[in-house]
Amino acid sequence: MQVAMKSTSPGPGDFFAGVAPVCFCSILLLALAMAGCEAKARNSQAVSNPTPAAANPVPKSHEDLDATLWMRTSAEYHVLAVDTYQRALAAVRSSVKAPAWSALPNQVVALQNPIASEDPKLPAVILDVDETVLDNSQFQVECITSSPFQFSSGGWTEWCNREVATPVPGVIDFVKGCRKMGVAIRYVTNRGNEVRQVTLNNLRKQGLVPDDESAEAELLCKGDQPDWGSDKTSRRDFIAAQFRVVVLIGDDLNDFVRTEDGATPAQRLAVAAGPGTMWGTSWFLLPNANYGGWEKSLVEYRSGLEREACLEMKLQRLQPAEPARTGPEANR
Ligand SMILES: [Mg+2]
User: Fold this and answer.
1) How does pLDDT run across 37-84, given as a tens digit for each residue?
2) What value does the CA radius of gyration of the chain take, rounded to a whole number of Å?
3) Residue 157 domain-assigned?
4) What CA–CA distance (Å, rounded) separates 256 from 293?
């Protein structure tokens, strides 16, 4: 929203074209004051007397602009992603030599109390797909540059069908390193079963799954089996029945642990900070400021919200969660 206001406001340079240098300073001060008043009046009118949508069409969406550019262009994102994968590979390397190591809390207990007749399970890592393994930021670009932006499941399916998502920095070396150590790879994604084949094709084009039928077992989509819903716990349990899961990698809390339906941001935070979590040792989180469970919780998991309603709910979240501090503590 701020970006749209900046781009449509005339700058001081436009106003002063052709003015004699001797009057420049005084006119500049006057013009800045006028511009400030005008902007305040315009903002005030926008809040108290909103213009009907038909007379003031929704501008191109910029809500995801900074997050998308950050992912696509920033050195910071690149370093974070590569570093995360390097630390995850080091954890895999250590875990291979430690038979009681698991990234799943309930499996740790089982490994510490093994049944004598049981053969040790082979190690495996579980990775989410979108914004963990495959970078879909080009889809975000196309959403931003289409106007008005409205996410649709049809548009997302069309994007998946193109099979052109690129690898997240660091993931190729991580997967190669795991395979070299004999560690199995399992991709657990909430992409639906209807895009399973194109997802597999996309992963194969990027060298992330083998070029043979063994790739089929590596991808676990939502709906591949009746009890495989959005909550990934049942798929993690399915994998744990066969493997010792040594590392989890994802960009969403749901890639690591179950969260209650309708969890608020505070409740999600409590889960993330709660007992049994293994951040940085067995659980490795990649940043995703574009979308995810964090965003859904802000709009109370309502799907199909109009853009204005969605923005309004998010703006409400800018209100402080607690009363403002007063007294000596306020300056800390
Ligand atoms: Mg993801």
Assistant:
1) 333 333 333 333 444 444 444 445 578 899 999 999 999 999 999 999
2) 25
3) yes
4) 12
What is the domain count for the chain? 1
Span from the CA of 205 to the centroid of ligand 1 (angstroms): 19
Cα-to-centroid distance, 132 and ligand 1 (Å): 6
User: What is residue 24's predicted lDDT score, i.e. its pLDDT?
Assistant: 37
**Residue at token pair 């038909």:** 54
What is the domain-level CATH number for residue 94?
Answer: 3.40.50.1000
For residue 153, the CA-to-ligand 1 centroid distance in Å is 16
Please give the distance, rounded to the nearest whole angstrom, from the Cα atom of residue 117 to the centre of ligand 1.
38
Q: Which domain does 228 fall in, by range? A: 65-314
> 231 alpha carbon to ligand 1 midpoint, in Å?
13
pLDDT tens-digit series, residues 220-250: 999 999 999 999 999 999 999 999 999 999 9
* Distance from Cα 148 to the centre of ligand 1, integer Å: 25
| Separation of alpha carbons 49 and 87, rounded Å | 53
Q: Distance, CA 309 to ligand 1 centroid (Å)?
A: 25
pLDDT at 144 over 50: yes
DSSP code of 211? S
Number of Cβ atoms within 10 Å of the Cβ of 157: 14
Cα–ligand 1 centroid distance for 131 (angstroms): 5
Tell me whether residue 180 is in a domain.
Answer: yes
Is 16 contained in some domain?
no
